[in-house]
Design a protein that fits this description.
It is a single chain. Helix 1 links the parallel strand 1 and strand 2. The chain has two domains: about 120 residues, Rossmann fold, CATH 3.40.50; about 90 residues, Arc Repressor Mutant, subunit A (Orthogonal Bundle). About 40% of the residues lie in helices and about 25% in strands. The protein is an alpha/beta fold. It has eight helices and 13 strands. Helix 6 packs across helix 8. Keywords: DNA-binding, Phosphoprotein, Transcription, Transcription regulation, Two-component regulatory system. It comes from Nitratifractor salsuginis (strain DSM 16511 / JCM 12458 / E9I37-1). This is Two component transcriptional regulator, winged helix family.
Length: about 220
Amino acid sequence: MRILIIEDEVTLSKTLAEGLKECGYQNDVAESLADGRYYLDIRNYDLILLDWMLPDGNGVDLIPEIKEKRPKTAVIVLSARDDKESEIEALRAGADDYIKKPFDFDILLMRIEAKLRFGGSNIIEIEDLIINPEEEKIIYKGETIELKGKPFEVLTHLAMHKDQIVSKEQLLDAIWEEPELVTPNVIEVAINQIRQKMDKPLGIVTIETVRRRGYRFCFPQKA
């Protein structure tokens, strides 16, 4: 599970990031709306912790954008505002929860777990192809396809951005924990695995190479 923390209080964001990592969550930290939008463009998140007041604007204004792109991504607003009207405003904007600062981390953790437990599924279904990111499972015409690890994550990321061209750099940044420590050819290896284990045996084309630009998920194009 991956969480995006959009919070400009450095001490708080560091505490949240470290605590969530200890609990097994992958997370990224953004300190402004601009940084938050950057991460949302390159990565998929199961949940977002969103501060209300940010240096470049109102965090609540970002919620409709999040819900339009990823309606199943849960959003929890963190705010020092303790009035009823602010809570109502955030929930009306599309927030899934509202937590007032200061808060207890253990309580926040329970709220996060509840939202992820009862949140919507991120399963991708396109014609006869089903990709289940939560279980790392692919099914095509009722048959389970053995594709795991980074190739599965690459396929899933491209499928979530269907018809968009995604560069190698964007894939590295979205999937690898320390993209600066790996070379871009790991993407080519992952794409080759997808084609060998899925496309060729099934007679389909899932990923198109766009010369000098990157890759595009193009299923249900036929081989």
